[in-house]
Structure formats: structure tokens, C-alpha cells
Amino acid sequence: MIAVAKQRRDPEEEAMGNGGPVRRRHLLRELKRLRGAVGLSQDEVSSQMGWDRGKIHRLEGGRLQRIKASDVIALCRLYQVTEEETENLAEIARESRQKSWWYRYKNVFAGPFIGLEAEASAIYEYSASIVPGLLQTEDYMVALMESSAGLISTQDEKSKRVEARLERQRSLMERTDPARLWMIIDEAALRRQVGGTDVMRRQIAHLVDVNQRPNIDLQVLPFDAGAHAAAGFQFSILVFSETDSIVYIEADQDGLYLEEEEQIARYRLVFDRLQASAISVERTNGLLASLTS
């Protein structure tokens, strides 16, 4: 392995991985677009701003935890942006420095997924092995924590994770404009006895209840569907607007984020095929009811 020397950074510039919530992503895309519009390279911007060569690269790549409004204003002046647009972008930078509810659980949620999910207007998800996190009951969550086989070491940590997941559900489900949710669950996730018979009976009854909500559609992908388009993995499509979506593929710790149009189109097609292979929402309710009897 080749050792790479680490450059000392300003404390305000700790890396955060794959970016942040939607308005922050808009800010970064705009700054990159504006730089391109005036024909400046990253090196040229760094030279004129008096920054180290890596700072503009980290900024545009979403790897700065906090973006200073003063930096945004200085960049906008370099890019010859109007005062109105400069102030709009600077305000996004100021807002990005405010701590949201999930900051209390920064040791629980890895990466930016929770922040992105919280701002989604629609979520399309396929879950292969367990009930989707947004639809889990507290007992089901506890059973998952108890089966972590030492990966979650203390009872306090388990309780913190359950608390964080419940807060995640409330923040999304109880907001004034709840997101549109379309969930496809593999039948295996319903048959697996997480926590035992009573826990699963309550969990499945909860799925029946949430499937009555106008903003939620739940379908089951049955065993007899055979091989299907998402065999071997599960994913979520987060939609923010007609022109802005991402795909999240879950993995250990953080996951993989896909933002290219071709990638998003591919996973939309996969989800469409899963919908076609799954049983209808109405038949799903019947199947779920049969599993609780």
C-alpha cells in the first residue's frame, strides 16, 4: 500500500464523504457551473483566491463539512455573479452550517443518506432481506439490534440506534408534506422470523396499516416471481424534483450514491420491472393479512 501524506486542513473543512442534503448539493453544482461559465480551471481559481490547490476540489466534490458564506461570496465575485444570485447561494451556505435533528445521531447514521432522505419528495425502495427501516416497528428494531452478534456492543448503543430510527420515521412520516413512498419487499423479509412470532405478527399488522395511507404503496415480491431484475442487492431511489434524483445502494457502514442520469434511468427501469413482478397493492394486503392469522 502506498502511503499518502495528509495535508493539514482548517478545522472547518473536515471531510464528509459523498455530499449533503439537497440545497447543499444545489449550491455545489451551481458553483461548479458558474466556474465553467467563466472558463476558469480549478487551479486558476485556487491561484486567484489564494487557496491551496485542493480546497476548491474538495468544495466542488462535497467533501467540506461546512461551507463558509464568505467563501461563496468571494467565488461569486470572481465568477461575476449578480448580487441577488450571490446572496441566494450565500444563504444556502449559512443554512448548511445549521445542525439538523440527525446531528444528535452522527455516530449512528453513516454518510449523508439520512439528510438526503429527509428532503426527498418521493422514495422508491426495494428491500430484499428485512422490512424497510421506515416501516419497522420498535420491537422489530430491537430484535435486529439483539441479533447484531457483537457488532453493536453495548445496550446503550442499541438503545441509541433504536431511538435514532424512530426519530427518522417520525421526521419523515409526520411532516406536513409527507414523502411519497413506494416500497417493494421481498417475501423472504416477511417470512424471516425476526424476534419471533409475536414480533413478526405486530410488524406485519403495522405494514397493513401503513399500506392504507394515501402516500404509501407497498408491494410484495413473491417467491414464485423467480429470478428478477434486482436479485442480489437492494436499493433506494430518492426523488427531490423532476430533474433531481439519486440512487442509494446500501452497504456496510455507508453505501454507494449514484447521480448520473444513465445510472438513475437504469435503476428506475429495474424498479419498474420489480413492480411488474410483484403482486398488486391490494393482493399484498391480502397476503399480509394471511400472515397475521
UniProtKB/TrEMBL annotation:
Residues 31-86 form the HTH cro/C1-type domain. Signal peptide: none annotated. It comes from the Bacteria. Gene3D superfamilies: lambda repressor-like DNA-binding domains (1.10.260.40). SUPFAM superfamilies: lambda repressor-like DNA-binding domains. PROSITE patterns: HTH_CROC1. Transmembrane segments: none annotated. Pfam families: DUF5753, HTH_31. Residues 1-21 are annotated as: Disordered. This is Helix-turn-helix transcriptional regulator.
